[in-house]
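Hey,
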Amino acid sequence: MEIVIFGIFAGLIYFFYEKYFKKYQTKKWIEIFKKDLQKYSYLVHSKEYLTTKSEWIFLRRLTEYLADKPVIILTKVRVWDFANFWKTKKWFFPYSVKSRIDRSHVDFVIISKKDLKIICAIELDDPSHLSDIAKERDEAKDIFFDFLKIPLFRFSSSNPTDEDFKRVGFE
């Protein structure tokens, strides 16, 4: 009898949580989000272009070079999206690793059209990569991609030649 009463009581608590409290929490979070977005709207504006001018030039050149290959070129992919975290949640991952990669991205990713497998990632090392902080971030990306066994190619020119592409293995 006590088990039945406990089950009914637990069911009622769950019902009220799902029906009222959970919905209130979601609405409350959305209201806070909208309010803060309005409050700090002077700090945020939309970009006109997703890529920089040098990235756009490189992307056009890369698209021309790979036109007859069965690949898809993606832009601005987060480094974190290249890894699976099966044994732990990503927020429990060591800060020494997470802090170096969780907000960074690679400029381009080439994936197979056939099965969407990752072929390689590409970084365009334009002038924004010259600072000490950027160099440290780039080194962390190199180490992470090497660890994942995903080729990461770096180009210093926004307008590479066919020989530049062949040099890194694009046949």
